[in-house]
Amino acid sequence: MNAEIAEQNLHWKDDYRQARIIIALCRAHDPEPLVTSSYRIYGVHPDLVFVAITAIRKAKLGDEYSDFYDENGNLIPQRLDIPDYDPTLDIYRRRRRPVDPTVWPQVRRPRGPFQLIVSREEVKEDGRILYYNEKLTCGHVHLEFIYGNLTSTRRRCKKCNSQH
Q1: Rounded to two decimals, what is the model's pTM?
Q2: CB 83 within 8 A of CB 148
Q3: How many Cβ atoms sit within 10 Å of the Cβ of residue 37?
């Protein structure tokens, strides 16, 4: 946790966070901790994370995508050392391209139905709360980490979604 908090690079910070969540899922005997953590952090299967990132980049850059990335999605090294933005420009004059809302749902998995939380049980180790096991009305158990929304009375059940 200290390495995650102290990390300045946002991409590496996400990697530390995913590693921490994978360890907690392993302790909770999750059968596929990498897949579960990927859905929690990125909302997609680990095989589709790069596809989703590439789709969002293409949606933001449009025709200019090939100026910055090659056909494999790798960043093309720039010939000149030019900053990403001109700090002398007024913030309102900088161009911002919104992400096309039709891009992201193509790679997201369907979400399960909402179920009421029947009970919430703390899972502790060395006196610290690692996560919570929440029993839902459908009978399944949902893992909620300490940074989640613990005031919520309903959760989406992923297992009910996979049975349909």
Answers
A1: 0.46
A2: no
A3: 22
In a domain, 74, yes or no: no
- Is there a contact between 143 and 25 (Cβ–Cβ < 8 Å)? yes
Consecutive 10-residue averages of pLDDT for the chain (164 residues): 86 88 93 91 88 88 87 76 62 58 61 84 85 89 76 81 57
What are the two backbone dihedrals, phi and then psi, of residue 14, each rounded to the nearest 5 degrees?
-65, -35
Q: Which of 120, 111, 117 is nearest to 155 (CA)?
A: 117
Paired tokens of 114 = 């909402």
What Cα–Cα distance (Å) separates residue 45 from each residue in 26, 50, 67, 99, 108? Answer: 18, 10, 28, 20, 8
Angle between helices 33-42 and 49-61 (to 10 degrees): 20
Structure confidence at residue 164 (pLDDT): 47
Phi, psi (rounded to 5 degrees) for 144: -125, 125
Q: Does the residue 37 lie in any domain? A: no
Residue 114 in any domain: the answer is yes
For residue 153, being part of any structural domain is answered with: yes
Query: What range defines the domain where residue 119 resides?
Result: 110-164
Q: How many domains does the chain have?
A: 1
